[in-house]
């Protein structure tokens, strides 16, 4: 076998990907090739290192190779940089003299002092004209960065040491940049004292290789200077400093200086006095701004003035947890982390993605904000230092603290290696094989670099995500339960602080619930201790954490001994998360779960409403297994209770449209009445000793029930109709039908664990004064002689849905010409409809109710929209068959297609009807009882907003949107209904 073939295999083993190019490059190195080959094989990218070395030799001269052959330390440092950083290789070619920086034998011994870095940068720009100084600053910055990168790659520095040195380097650069800015401003620069206060990673001594440097500026007029002139001078200094650092020149750029963390952000003044900062932070600042101030550190300019700003804000930082809105701001910060991830990068995001750097930083900072108010031991600014203090103080378990430290250090190191390649600001792990191989080798995974890198990264991602969810919540359990192992241990007082920060209004009661759930050594208690850290997080994200935890305790006490309950929650994360959201949002759903605990199982499946046919079949089968009529109807109502939970859960979780909710509730009522009608008929026949019924019966749905638009708190408006069998005694048939109707209403009104279903027959002819049940002929005679326009309007929603099919069809044929007159209603009838509506508006709105907030009878509410659609139906359905429907939205669409309503007006009415219906349902779901007015209670409003999909803290926006919808709807109603 040829020596060339053998050489190629060796080169591939050493990590060269293009062996032909490598052979050619090594030949060009001459005698230096053999002693340098093994060192090249230890670099991140041997091919890139070799190419960079050849380029640098051409620029630096032959003594480069002689030095490298004789000095292995220098060779390893230089080749490591060339193999890991294309950007620094380019810098060395432009400034070949800088390779000698790596001959310093003390390079890896100690970190240079911050003052030494600052002095070197200031010396580089001293006495130079502006343009030369700007370029000199870039060159000197790269020289110092080159030294750091060489130490980082070859001397195995800790990631915190690298980040701290990068932060000191940035501080020195800001000082040198400020010196250049003073030259640009001229004599006016002496009018102001300006301090540059670093925030974020630079302030926390944990900067990346490439990152924006976040700053805040504070100034003070110089002695005797005019304040406005001082402000102008300080603004000019700050502006020029930012340009000096970020402008692109022949020597490139350094990094952007970002001042957007200042009070009022981009909209606020660039510089402020100390008093102006104090006024803003005391009156207007949000919680996230105090979180940002955790890392504030004076770094350039007048350091004493900067220290005054930091000392002034420190007490505010550590009392932020006591501020109104802390919980909402905290939740908003969590959301922003996820919202800023581009979809294409979500799985490769090292910083913002799940299990990324921000998860660690956010958790650590949140623990500091909660407990740092009373515990000064945990106030370090750097993440790893703060994590160590939290662990030592007992707020994080030792094993968890160690695992989180290792994961964060790995992620930051990987981030550094990614950025070092081209000195670009990126946090996305590349997917191409070459880049992954280079990254893996740069982290000393020389054997299978790609596979080990991916495996290690995914392991740490999982660990971070697990610990992020765990470490804020699990220590709460140690305050109330004896948990073996090395866990964080909070005092009861610290646990109460943490629960308060999570949004629990009554932390002491919450601790009692946790104690009840986790006490003891039983399997149930053990599983609860596993579940609760995650459940607490979900409760905290919901509108009412207290209700969520209390409901979970009651449910667990009811089902705790049931084998499937806890194992389902433990093993099926979707069930547990859905349960937590329901319990902490909806009193209605919580009540149903307590009455129907088996419904927990249902949360893992399809939550779409079942069909009326399937429900009727199940209810009839359940009822027929019981001889006792009350037991039979309890079985029917049990199925109804379960299905109410299914619909409510689907609605709360955003899986069901509002129209589907109304239709689902209406079909459920159909099935309930159908099955109960059979039971009531059985009772009536038994009482009368009859083998067969003397009459056929049907139930006609009316109102919102007839329109397939029931809400959770709606009654079932109905009319009863019967038709005696041939040869039956009319009186006996009437008596039987009356008994069946009364028995049906009695059975459904019996006290029970399910929400009652009130059957309301007041819309029948003559109202409460008329007979409960009429024959078909009696209805025909009444409508022919006595019917008035409001009854015709009520019949627009009549839908014969239950009982004898033939009778139902004949009833609907009977009322068809009455509700849809061929020529429409008369002008007098139109006037009468409007008169009745005006009376409803003036008399039926509850005393004290706000007409702008009442969902049913208020301005632009449901009644306004539905009466408008019904008037169109009464006027035009005789000529427009599509208008002959009991459903509001279908009728509105038909009116639009017929040109009776404009596209815009139809859209407004449709959107408003859907919106108001959703809000009305949400109020019932949250409160557990019907409500027709937008609630005034802040927590209830917040929960309603959450059900509607608004983020925490947006209840005012929800109310404003609601008022906008109803205002627009009222404008359309005024044009169409009132003309």
Automatic annotation (TrEMBL):
Glutamate-ammonia ligase adenylyltransferase repeated domain residues: 77-308, 577-813
Top-level taxonomic group: Bacteria
The protein's Enzyme Commission number: 2.7.7.89, 2.7.7.42
GO cellular component: cytosol
Family label: Belongs to the GlnE family.
Reported function: Involved in the regulation of glutamine synthetase GlnA, a key enzyme in the process to assimilate ammonia. When cellular nitrogen levels are high, the C-terminal adenylyl transferase (AT) inactivates GlnA by covalent transfer of an adenylyl group from ATP to specific tyrosine residue of GlnA, thus reducing its activity. Conversely, when nitrogen levels are low, the N-terminal adenylyl removase (AR) activates GlnA by removing the adenylyl group by phosphorolysis, increasing its activity.
UniProt-recorded name of the protein: Bifunctional glutamine synthetase adenylyltransferase/adenylyl-removing enzyme
Native source species: Nocardioides agri
Gene, per the UniProt record: glnE
């Amino acid at each position: 076998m040829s020596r060339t073939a053998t050489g190629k295999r060796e080169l591939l083993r050493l990590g060269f990907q293009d062996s032909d190019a490598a052979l050619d490059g090594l030949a060009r190195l001459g005698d230096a090739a053999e002693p340098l080959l093994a060192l090249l094989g230890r670099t991140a990218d041997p091919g890139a290192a070799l190419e960079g070395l050849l380029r640098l030799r051409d620029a630096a001269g032959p003594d480069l190779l002689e030095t490298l052959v004789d000095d292995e330390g220098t060779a390893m440092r230089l080749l490591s940089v060339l193999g890991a950083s294309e950007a620094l290789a380019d810098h060395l070619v432009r400034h070949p003299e800088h390779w000698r920086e790596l001959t310093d034998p003390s390079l890896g011994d100690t970190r240079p002092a911050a003052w030494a870095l600052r002095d070197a940068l200031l010396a580089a720009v001293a006495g130079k004209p502006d343009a030369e100084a700007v370029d000199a600053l870039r060159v000197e910055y790269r020289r110092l960065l080159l030294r750091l990168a060489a130490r980082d790659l070859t001397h195995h520095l800790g990631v915190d040491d690298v980040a701290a040195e990068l932060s000191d380097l940035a501080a020195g650069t800001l000082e040198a940049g400020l010196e250049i800015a003073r030259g640009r401003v001229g004599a006016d620069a002496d009018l102001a004292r300006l301090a540059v206060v670093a925030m974020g990673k630079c302030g926390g001594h944990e900067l990346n290789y490439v990152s924006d440097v976040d700053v805040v500026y504070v100034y003070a007029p110089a002695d005797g200077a005019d304040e406005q002139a001082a402000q102008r001078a300080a603004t000019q200094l700050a502006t020029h400093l930012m340009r000096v650092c970020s402008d692109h020149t022949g020597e490139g750029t350094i990094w952007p200086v970002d001042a957007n963390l200042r009070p009022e952000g981009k909209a606020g003044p660039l510089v402020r006095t100390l008093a102006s900062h104090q006024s803003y932070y005391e009156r207007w600042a949000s919680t996230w701004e105090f979180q940002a101030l955790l890392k504030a550190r004076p770094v350039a300019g007048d350091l004493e003035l900067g220290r005054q700003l930091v000392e002034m804000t420190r007490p505010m930082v550590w009392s932020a947890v006591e501020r109104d809105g802390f919980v909402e701001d905290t939740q908003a910060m969590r959301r922003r982390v996820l919202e800023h991830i581009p979809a294409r990068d979500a799985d490769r995001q090292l910083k913002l993605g799940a299990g990324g750097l921000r998860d660690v930083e956010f958790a650590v900072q949140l623990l500091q904000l909660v407990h740092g108010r009373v515990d000064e031991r945990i106030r370090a600014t750097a993440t790893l230092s703060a994590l160590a203090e939290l662990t030592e103080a007992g707020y994080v378990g030792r094993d968890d603290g160690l695992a989180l430290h290792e994961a964060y250090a790995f992620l930051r190191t990987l981030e550094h290696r990614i950025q070092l390649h081209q000195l670009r600001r990126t946090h996305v792990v590349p997917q191409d094989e070459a880049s992954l191989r280079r990254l893996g080798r740069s982290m000393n995974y020389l054997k299978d670099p790609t596979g080990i890198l991916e495996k290690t990264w995914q392991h740490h991602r999982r660990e971070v995500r697990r610990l992020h969810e765990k470490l804020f919540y699990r220590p709460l359990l140690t305050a109330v339960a004896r948990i073996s192992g090395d866990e964080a241990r909070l005092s009861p007082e610290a646990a109460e602080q943490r629960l308060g920060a999570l949004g629990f209004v009554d932390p002491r009661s919450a601790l009692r619930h946790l104690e009840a759930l986790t006490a003891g050594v039983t399997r149930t208690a053990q599983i609860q201790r596993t579940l609760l850290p995650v459940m607490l997080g979900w409760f905290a994200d919901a509108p009412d954490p207290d209700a969520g935890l209390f409901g979970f305790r009651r449910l667990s006490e009811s089902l705790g001994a049931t084998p499937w309950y806890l194992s389902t929650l433990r093993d099926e994360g979707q069930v547990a998360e859905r349960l937590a959201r329901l319990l902490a949002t909806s009193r209605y759903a919580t009540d149903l779960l307590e009455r129907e605990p088996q419904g927990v199982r249902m949360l893992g499946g399809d939550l779409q409403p079942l069909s009326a046919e399937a429900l009727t079949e199940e209810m009839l089968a359940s009822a027929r297994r019981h001889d006792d009529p009350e037991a039979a109807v309890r079985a029917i109502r049990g199925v109804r209770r379960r299905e109410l939970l299914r619909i409510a859960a689907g609605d709360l979780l955003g899986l069901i449209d509002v129209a589907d909710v109304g239709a689902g509730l209406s079909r459920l009522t159909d099935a309930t009445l159908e099955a109960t009608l059979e039971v009531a008929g059985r009772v009536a026949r038994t009482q009368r000793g009859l083998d067969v019924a003397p009459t056929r019966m049907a139930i006609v749905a009316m109102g919102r029930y007839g329109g397939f638009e029931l809400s959770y708190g709606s009654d079932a408006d109905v009319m009863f109709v019967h038709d005696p069998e041939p040869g039956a005694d009319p009186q006996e048939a009437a008596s039987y039908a009356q008994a069946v109707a009364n028995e049906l209403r009695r059975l459904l009104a019996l006290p029970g664990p399910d929400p009652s279903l009130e059957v309301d027959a007041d819309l029948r002819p003559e109202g409460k004064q008329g007979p409960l049940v009429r024959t078909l002929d009696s209805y025909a005679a009444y409508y022919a002689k006595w019917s008035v326009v409001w009854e015709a309007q009520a019949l627009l929603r009549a839908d014969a849905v239950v009982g004898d099919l033939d009778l139902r069809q004949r009833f609907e044929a009977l009322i068809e010409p009455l509700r849809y007159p061929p020529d429409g209603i008369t002008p007098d009838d139109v006037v009468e409809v409007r008169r009745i509506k005006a009376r409803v508006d003036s008399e039926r709105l509850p005393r004290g109710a706000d007409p702008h907030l009442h969902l049913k009878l208020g301005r632009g509410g449901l009644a306004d929209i539905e009466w408008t659609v019904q008037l169109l139906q009464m006027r035009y359905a005789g000529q427009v068959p599509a208008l002959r429907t009991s459903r509001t939205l279908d009728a509105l669409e038909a009116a639009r297609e017929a040109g009776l309503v404009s596209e815009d007006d139809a859209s407004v009415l449709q959107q408003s009807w859907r919106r108001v219906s959703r809000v009305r349902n949400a109020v019932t779901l949250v409160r557990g009882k019907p409500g027709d007015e937008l609630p005034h209670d802040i927590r209830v409003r917040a929960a309603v907003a959450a059900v509607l999909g608004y983020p925490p803290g947006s209840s005012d926006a929800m109310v404003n949107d609601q008022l906008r919808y109803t205002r627009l709807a009222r404008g359309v109603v005024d044009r169409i209904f009132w003309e």
